[in-house]
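User: My collaborator sent over this chain with a note saying "see what the structure looks like." That's all I know about it. Can you take a look?
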Amino acid sequence: MTLDDLKNALPDYAKDLRLNLDSVLSEGGAPGLDARQIRAVALASAIAARHTPLSHAIDAFASDRLDPLERDGVRSAAAMMAMTNLYYRFTHLVDNAEYQTLRTSLRMNVMARPGIDKAAFEAASLAVSVVNGCGACMASHEKALRQHGIDAQGVQSIARIAAVVHAVAVTLEQAAPAA
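Assistant: Without extra context I'll predict from the sequence alone. Here is the result:
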């Protein structure tokens, strides 16, 4: 299914999502981000939202600006954040400072050479952290993005893309006929 097919599959009650998706995936609708970053964020968000048809459609959409190695870099960000968002959310929510002093002992080597530029990797990481609701990771990646020159509007655009893509995934999942 194409992205247009999925937008058309959104029920009438979710018309705003269709409009918002068109908006946030356009360069004018995501201030502070370039076309490559928009696609990286959208793909990472779709992966985190766990709706396979949407992930595939956004991967096809992203392929016009991101090469296969860069798209794998986005997948790497999504994979790492799937792990680290849960871990760091645990250390934050358990409310025991001792866990903050322990080594994580989790391999994250891909972060050194992710296959995509660092700003796009951080943007994808923030998007997944937004979808997964990890406050510690959101704060860390927002700070890194600001150091890479992404301004507040760019960070807000990342959060908006993540929110819209996630809402589209949830709505499509719920609108799908029961098997």
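A starting point for your reply to your collaborator: The domain at 3-175 is CATH 1.20.1290.10 (AhpD-like).
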